Every structure is written in structure tokens, then in C-alpha cells.
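User: Second chain of the day. Same drill as before.
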Amino acid sequence: MTRRTLFAAAALALAVAAPQAQAALLIDQANFTGACGSSLSCVGASAVTANGDMRLTPAQLNQGGAAFSKAAVSLGAGATFSTSFQFRMSQAGGWNPADGLTFVLAKANEGLGDTGIGLGYAGVKNSVAIEFDTFDNSEGSSNHVAVDVDGALSNLARVSPYGVTSCTLANYGAAGCMSNGKVWTAFINYDGTAHKLNVSAQEAGSALVQLITDFNIDIADVLGTSQAFVGFTAATGAGYENHDILNWQLANDTSIHSKVPEPASLALLLLAGGAALGAKRRRRG
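Assistant: Same format as last time:
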């Protein structure tokens, strides 16, 4: 079996083995054209660009922006949810690339938190955020992902994508730096029954990396509800960059994920794929 045939068989096997039920999507934004004022509350500097990206802040000094669902969404049991989105942080300038963005779940649609090092999130009570931070505010890294709770920049479970900890104007554009202007894809998955949060990300052209694994947190307890306003915040200060969200999906179950089969499972899927291909050939004969 050639490599091309092998991959074709694997792809077919995955399709055969995949659950037929669709994700319980609550939000499905292929782009954000027309979203401000209809499905989303856009505050501060946030605005939709001509090509449909949600620009939370432009690459200018001292900006802050947020975009939240206009209505609270019903998450799954124990606030179970999964989400994926693509983002790009570009055109950095000023002191250094800054400051980063967050994905947020909040009890109330409070709009914008503190700007600058606050990432547009600081001060938003009864909330949980996953930050994608591009400035070192004494955390030891100017390129990290972490969990923030109750409006504080807690920096829980902090980790640097691809092990890259220093991203400045001096090495702007470097691989592994979230501020490098490339498209990044993020996956966040939370099991409200097990209280486990997982976060992974992928820089365009690089391998997917698991960043946060089974972090224990009771999101429903922090929020005080399983009804949450969900969205994004970002901010700049003496350093700046564009903070763009390109697309976004969110479900009230854990069906949106980035996991790939384990090697043993893949072998079984390949066998299934071979059987499926054989059956397909037989049907054609």
C-alpha cells in the first residue's frame, strides 16, 4: 500500500468511525460580518474589519476592546463547553508586542475590563479566562497561555507555546511567538463533570501542541451559573499589535476538540479503512 493510499484509507476510516451526531453548536461564526450589534456586543476599540475579522484592538497605543455574546448561552452540565477559534496578532510596535487577548466566560456582560496589562479582562468578576499573553509582566515569559479567574490575572497553569518564552521586537516574526503575525488556531475543551480544562494551539505551518492538560477548575462555581456570556477581550499599552479573531465555534458539549487517534487506534482505523475501501470496490464491480 503506498503512502498516499495509506493516508486515503486513514481519512476514510476516520470518516467511517466518526460519530454521526453533529456538535451542539451555540456559536458558529465563519467570519464576523454583521455580528456587532446583532449577535455580539462590541465595546471599546473592537470593530469588524472589511474582510470580516473581529479586530479587538488596532495596532495602536493604549487600546482596549471586547466582543461578547449579546445573550447568555446555556452551557452543558457543570458548565461543560468546547470552543475553537483562529486568531492573528500582527503589526507589533511601540515598546514590544503587547499585550495579548483572552477568551472569556462571564456571569454578566460587563463589557471591557482594564486595558494594558489587564488584557481587557482584569476586573471582570464571576468569570474565567484563558489568556494568550504576549508581554512579560513579571511572569517570566512574553509568550504564554494561562488561566485567569474572577477578573484577576492569576496566570494559572502558565505555559509557553512550543517552549518559546521570549518574543520581542528584536525577534519579531519568530516561529512559536503568538505575536508573529501568523494565523494560530486554539482549541479549548472543558468537562464540567470531571472539572477538567484542556487547551491546545497550533501555529500555521507547525504541529499542534497541547498546552494545558486536565487543569482542575470548577467553572460553574466561579461563575455561579451555567449560563454564561462568552467572548474575547484584548488590550495594548506602551506596546501594541492588532488583535484579530478570524472565526469562532462554541458548543455546549466537548465535541469540538483537536485530539488525534492514538497509534493503536489508528491501526484499527486503517484496518477499517481497508475494509471500507474493499467494500467500496466490491460495490463498484
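The chain is about 15% helix and 40% strand.

User: Great, on to the next one.
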